[in-house]
Amino acid sequence: MDSLSAISEELAEIDGQIADIFRALSNGFQKLEKIKDPSRQSRQLEELTEKMRECKRLIKDFDREVKEVENRNSPDSNRMLNDKKQSMIKELNSYVALKKQYASNLENNKRVDLFDGPGGEEENVLLASSMSNQQLIDRGNEMLDETDQSIERSKQVVQQTINVGAETAAALKEQTEQMSRIVNELDSIHFSIKKASQLVKEIGRQVATDKCIMALLFLIVIGVIAIIIVKLVNPHNKNIQDIPGLAPPAPARKLLWDQN
């Protein structure tokens, strides 16, 4: 630890954490040997596995820190650090192998004997070697019946799943058709709005034209009224003599024999 502190405080701290985990793993496996309950053994193995994962992460941090300070160290220091890392990996692998061994033993203990019955410990003690042929046949028939029932339940579950899938597919198809109809209706509405907009523009142009015509007629009527007023006020005005209906009547022509 002191030599690591002289090289890097970070390396010394990581080394201390790894050493603490190794002590915890050693104590944990010793405790595991005394546990007889399979469920407690399983929980203890899970805790030890979590500690081994943490140790693996710390070893990676240790290796990364070693590479960062490698250029500043002497060859002897680098060799010492590499040996330290290899020692950590070797010790961790030994605990991993021990964990696999315990896990395998625990799995073997959990296996149920082929001829174990559901009636309790007294039936579990009954082994195949102590059974008669008829008992073996009866037990085999019971297991076949249980297997058939399990298969039948599985078929029912599969059929229910198929039915739910078919209903879901039908619902999706109906929704897709409904969405397609909505899209078509939206296209129709858009087309109608476009036609209505064009019609409004045409009506607007016609109204503008009609307004121009009405304005022109209004001006003509105003002009005629003005001329009539002027004629009434000044009937001898020569400028409006030639306007039809406003000029004074022409003098009566005298015949030649009337003069004679």
Describe this structure in words.
80% of the residues lie in helices and 0% in strands. It is mainly alpha-helical. It has a domain at 2-111: Methane Monooxygenase Hydroxylase, Chain G, domain 1, CATH 1.20.58. Helix 2 (9-34) packs antiparallel against helix 3, helix 2 (9-34) packs parallel to helix 4 (75-110) and helix 3 (38-69) packs antiparallel against helix 4 (75-110). It is elongated and about 145 Å long. The chain starts with a helix and ends with a helix. The model is unreliable at 112-127 (pLDDT under 50).
Helix/strand order:
HHHHHHH
Structural class: mainly alpha
The CATH topology of the domain at 2-111 comes to Methane Monooxygenase Hydroxylase, Chain G, domain 1
| Average residue-wise pLDDT | 78
The proportion of residues in beta strands is under 5%
Low-pLDDT runs of 5+ residues are 112-127
Query: Could you tell me how far the N terminus lies from the C terminus, measured between alpha carbons in angstroms?
Result: 166 Å
Radius of gyration: 56 Å
Main location: membrane
InterPro entries: NPSN/SNAP25-like_N_SNARE (IPR044766), Sec20_C (IPR056173), T_SNARE_dom (IPR000727)
Pfam families: Sec20
GO molecular function, one term: SNAP receptor activity
